[in-house]
Amino acid sequence: MNQAARALALLAERDQTVAVAESLTGGLVAAELTSVPGASRSFRGSVTAYATALKHELLGVDETLLAERGAVDPDVALQMAAGVRTRLGAGWGVATTGVAGPDPQDGQPVGTVFVAVCGPVDGALAAGKVLALRLNGDRAEIRRESARSVLELLADQLSGNTRAQDTEQNGGT
Questions:
Q1: Global model pTM greater than 0.70
Q2: What are the residues facing 81 on neighbouring strands?
């Protein structure tokens, strides 16, 4: 079972929903989720906020944070996940932000990615987790691995598993 199917199955078991905020992945996470039959039971929708200003305007990411640190930042990823969760009315929010290449961005090298999950704790309160990735590979591999990683993080959070905070992985397979 792929990560999208695993996450959706866990969400369905709990009668919960997810919304997605994407930057570098440009819709790949939403595409992975919607490729699974029955995804509409748990998938609320997505926001592709590729431009930095949209992260603030659509997802509520703090403007000062974006100005001071740029879009490639763990706190930005977490605020994106929390923002999409709130704005799309989902129990869980996931987010991707990073540098797929070919050039560095915001002082961060190609392959620097932050993925985040924000979910419910005791009903309305939200708890979040951010994973820092240092990915190798070309632009397409970095984007694919970012999408796979955020779905894995979501599934792990839903199942109660944890993963190391910082990892180094090869993009692709």
A1: yes
A2: none
